Amino acid sequence: MKLSGLGVLGTLLLLSGCSIFQKNDIPDPNVSNTASTNLKDVADAVYNELRQINAPAPVPRVNPESVHGCSTRLVSIDLDGDVMLLIDDMVKAKYCQVRVVGKKPPQDIVLSLHYKVKPLWTVLEDAGVQMGNLGSISVGENSVVFDFTPGVQK
């Protein structure tokens, strides 16, 4: 009796999967298209925002005739290393008065400068581009200012 009851119960469980009501697993195309469109719009917005954030900053062009003072001196430099090496070399060579504003970031700001007989302002312009958002260089009539103040880069 118990054995036949278990057999009937097992058969009922197997057959309960067969139903007279058919399930509709096909998604509604209107809902699917709306979700896809919304997802695509969000993805496009994120992509455009990331492109805008990662776009290189425009490099200001200097008119050579407008440059006066110590930055017009011709220099030759061969440097691969931290920006502090450039600052030390400039202080030792006494090209211009050198000032450092702010605290240097904890990571090294590696520069690669290789110039033969070029104006100092050209070298400093390239160094400023290589420093990116970690610092800025301002050239005055008789001084050069290296600014490492966070959030104030020019």
Automatic annotation (TrEMBL):
Spell out the Pfam families in the cross-references.
DotD
Q: Which domain of life is it from?
A: Bacteria
| Keyword terms | Lipoprotein
- Which InterPro entries does the UniProt record give? DotD, DotD_sf
Answer yes or no on keyword Lipoprotein: yes
Query: What is this protein called in UniProt?
Result: DotD/TraH family lipoprotein
